[in-house]
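Quick question about two entries, pasted in order.
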Amino acid sequence: MSAAPRSPARRRQDSEHRLAHDVDVWVATASADGVPHLVPLSFDWDGEALLLSTSAGSPTGRNLAATRTVRLGLGHTRDVSMIEGDVEVLEIDALPRERGDRFAARTGFDPRAASTPYLWFRVVPRRVQAWREVNEMSGRELMRDGHWTT
């Protein structure tokens, strides 16, 4: 038997906790011709956007740069936050040093030191959903059009 469903406010609190404390997120993209691609990447959350980095030539890097949209899966399958966001692409030296240092400290990886060209991808959430099981499907939308609903 599953636990009673959480309130939308509690789901938001749990999602924000994951954003603040988790380090990795599933990143789902698609190419211009619709070929899907899914990879885990490390991220940093500054309270308004997730910062990701990957090789400019990777399928994920190419897809993010081309489509400027992404879907992220944070957490486990039975406690997930799904985030749809708009992507801003930044050259590796365009980010303020402090922000890059924060990313490196949190993730244990500094793409500025990579031997292949990397890019930063700043993801601004526009839709967030969170649920654990079927009893939380109702009320799972916590953010719509970039604004929290709770």
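Here is the second entry:
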Amino acid sequence: MAIAAIFEAMRESRFLADLTPYDRDARRLAVAVPVGVLAAVAAAVLGAASACLLVMVVVSGLDGAPAAAALFAVFDQPARAETEGLASLFLLSVLAGVNGAAALAFVAVSAGLSHRPIRGYAVVGGVFRTRLLVAGLVLVGAIMVALVIAAASLGAGAGAPTPPILALASTSLGRATYAGFAIMLLVIAAAAEEIVFRGWLLKHAGAFTRSPVILMAVNGLLFALIHFDPNPGAFLIRAAMGAGLTWMTLRTGGIELAIGAHAANNIVILLLLRPLSLTPEALHPFQLTSLVGAVGIGAGYALLAEAVVRWPIVTRWFGSRDTATI
């Protein structure tokens, strides 16, 4: 199919079909953004406190109160999250609680002002297509794992540190437990970002323009900016990732596939490449490999979306009657 036909299908995406004049009202947006940010900050505090309390209750029940209290030392010694599985999961829990609560609060404010149910920023028709989320997890995860293995076999990983999943737990059961909780928490964190960027932002941007190029560019740039990474290479890769996830959302008519793809990216990185770290990124010069990586990610996400909506062997497993096909 010609790219022009795909772009025309994206202009008519079912994800943008329910837009109303409220979504284009600049005055409502001018109120929704600052009020939403304030609500998100307050919700983030509550989310962090709730996550801390939940983890403390679970850990104290398993290992006693001293072990639960010791978890808070990670805030003074954040490097512990890079070497201790329990400390890493604790920080992941807090981050998931913060992201999830903040995203829901922000979107809730805009939903109220735009007379739209919160779920309207995630799906069309009120049905969350779980199989598309699984598709993103499985397909992106499998591709990234294959690339990691290929890089290691070609010697690109020579001298690289031990994969976090092996370093943060010493037994098979411990590693399986760590991986299970990490996957669950990273899906929550990814869903929070997706409902804001590929949900709220894409809906309101789509109310002003239906141009797929503009929508992908705006979404990708803002997605990269919000991560506050000083490295131009990382900025470019995140911008390409945001653009690719926007393509996925427009082509499938919801954010489910984007959630899975986003989560899979983070899961593979944290389990196989580098552990969770709160240390600010050091500034690195721009490298050509970053440009190659950005092109690969953007094109890869677009091709994956096309596979899900068009290839019978893929749609048979992961598609649904509500997935766009053209």
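Reply: The chain has 13 helices and no strands. The two ends are 9 Å apart (CA to CA). Hope that helps.
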